[in-house]
Amino acid sequence: MRKADVANIICEKVGLSKTEAMDRVEDVLNILKTGLQRGEAIKIAGFGNFIVRSKGERKGRNPRTGEEIAITPRRVVTFRPSQLFKKHVNI
Amino acid sequence: MTKAHLIEKLSEQAPTLSHRQAELVVNTLFDSIRDSLKNGEKTEIRGFGSFRLRIRQTKEGRNPKTGESVEVPEKRMPFFKAGKEIKELLNQENGIEKSS
Predict the structure, then answer these.
(1) Looking at this predicted complex, what is its ipTM?
(2) Of B51, B48, B50, nearest to B90 (Cα)?
(3) Which distant-in-sequence residues (6+ apart) come within 8 Å of B37 by Cβ?
């Protein structure tokens, strides 16, 4: 499934035009992205939590050359699915 | 940010929607992702990330009370991988560079 498929489902369920549904999907994604960029955790009941974690510098290797390189500190997003979501995919 | 905050913000940003519609948009979005994984189909949202299933294989476990060996059945787990755009968005400030 792609973004357009999600928009189509919303279009049917909510009764919006396809373009409007697509625009509203983009709105939601932008709100989520802005929150994550601020370092906020996003908690969606029944779905799961998106959490921003900071990782310190660590050593890695170039898998091709075996050369040791430093991996720069960075922020990553992790997703923890809710109990309900986990249950949903195992029925 | 909770789902209620998200709905609130969507309402503000999209004044053409009623509050009820904003709620439905948000709920339908997450429900559709959940349902796709339930059907074994992955969902890829450009600019955000992709959701797919990871299969945890059967393993041998033990009943902690009796010590009896039991087989833990295969399990499916929802898995999210952040997209490139998000990764860059999170690492462009404070001079934190992305490495290739």
Answers:
(1) 0.90
(2) B48
(3) A88, A89, B43, B51, B52, B53, B78
Cα–Cα nearest to B85, from A5, A77, A15, A11: A77
Find the distance separating the first CA and the last CA of chain A, reported in whole Å: 20
Task: Report whether A43 contacts A81 (CB < 8 A).
Answer: no
Instruction: Name the residue among A44, A76, A91 with its Cβ closest to that of B30.
Output: A44
DSSP-derived letter for residue B88 is H
Task: Quick: pLDDT tens for A40-59.
Answer: 999 999 999 999 999 999 99
Using DSSP, state whether B80 is helix, strand or coil: strand
Which uninterrupted H or E stretch holds B7?
A: helix B3-13
B74: contact with A, CB 8 A cutoff:
no
A32 touches chain B (CB under 8 A): yes
Residues 6+ apart with CB under 8 A from B74: B55, B56, B57, B58
* pTM, rounded to two decimals: 0.87
Q: Read off the pLDDT of residues B18-71 as tens digits, 9 standing for 90 and up.
A: 999 999 999 999 999 999 999 999 999 999 999 999 998 998 889 889 989 998
Structure tokens at A80: 């923890």
